[in-house]
Amino acid sequence: MSDTLSAVTADSHALFTAVLERLAKRESLSATQAEEAFGVIMDGAVSSERIAAFLMALRVRGETPDELLGAVTALRQRMNAVPDLPDNTVDVCGTGGDNYGTLNVSTAVAFVLAALGIPVAKHGNRAVSSLSGASDVLGALGVPLLADAASLHSQMQSHRAIFLAAPNHHPAMRHAAQARKALGLPTLFNLVGPLVNPAGVRRQLVGVFSPSWLRPVVDVLGRLGSERVWAVCGLPRIGHGGIDEMTLAGPTQVEALEDGRAYSFTVEPEMAGLAYAPVSAIQGGNAQHNAQALNELLRGAHGAYRDTVLLNAACALHVAGRISLLHEGRLDPHALKNGVAEAARSLDNGAALAVLDGLRAAGSAARPER
After folding, report:
1. Distances (CA, A) of 116 to 83, 141, 207, 244, 369
2. pLDDT string in tens for the chain (370-residue length)
3. Would you identify the CATH topology of the domain 2-78?
4. N or C: which end of the chain has fewer CB within 10 A?
């Protein structure tokens, strides 16, 4: 047994060394080669130092769509899946890595969608490049982050929303955690996260930190069987690059996959009847700060945070198939405004808050008395 294990370890070391040598020569990896490289990382056969070298070599040379596909395939093969959810389940998730440190937008959108009866399997993680990731803010809100499939199915049936914390479903990711933390920079793992939803959703609104990755993200998801995807990148007029959500601070570039066809277009906040607001208007903080802001939002607070959530929620309604925003690849501003109004009603009538309260109550009931 030990001889077999030693042979496997030696093979993994040799494979990864060959990969590093290719990257040192600025050569790209095929999807199969990338899948093998990320596979041995996820299997714990590579040191943190070599993982960091690998990730930086990819970043410096520039990652390719095939390398992204290989990474996603490797991680999907090793995840703890949550099968058999409703076919129209959606995810709203961002890559992170934009370093704007905003309030939690996609998490808030999940409550809005669930309040409108749309099943949501929100994938997320703790903060890597921001102060408060989805898991951080949900913990501060008292929302349970369940792991077993039976409990998640029950939660979906009762509240139309489940939150899939990456560590619960991607334990293999722990092998890369030290290297990612040491680098402190966006890497290919930021892009992989939204593409490995454990529920296997086929409808997604994906926020991406760089417009250069919009089409590759859509193409990879299309190759893996997704039905409808909007990959979005906000381009603030004042800022230091793209933001991984639809924004009020400037145009949002969109790459969409619908009915097997790809579309490219831009969304301006005024097309949704919303006013411009700089990114600083939704500046976030730690988990407690962001949780308080989200709680106030669900209780009726107005402002840039609400409007940003409404813009993203309206587009997510289209991804979910509730409304139709595109006609022959062109965005219909009138339909977008109606989508914003529909999302707003779920905040104004307390339905979105009721989803949060229901999840909190379920979490409290599940905790044993002390």
Report:
1. 23, 21, 21, 24, 33
2. 454 445 557 789 999 999 999 999 999 999 999 999 999 999 999 999 999 999 999 999 999 999 999 999 999 999 999 999 999 999 999 988 788 999 999 999 999 999 999 999 999 877 654 567 788 899 999 999 999 999 999 999 999 999 999 899 999 999 999 999 899 888 999 899 999 999 999 999 999 999 999 999 999 999 999 999 999 999 999 988 999 999 999 999 999 999 899 999 999 999 999 999 999 999 999 999 999 999 999 999 999 999 999 999 999 999 999 999 999 889 999 999 999 999 999 999 999 999 999 999 976 665 544 4
3. 1.20.970
4. C
CATH topology of domain 90-358: Pyrimidine Nucleoside Phosphorylase; Chain A, domain 2 (3.40.1030)
The residues spanned by each domain of the chain are 2-78, 90-358
Q: In this structure, are residues 233 and 214 in contact, taking their beta carbons and an 8 Å threshold?
A: yes
Q: What pTM was estimated for this model as a whole? A: 0.93
Q: How far apart are alpha carbons 35 and 37 in whole angstroms? A: 6
CB 49 within 8 A of CB 17: no
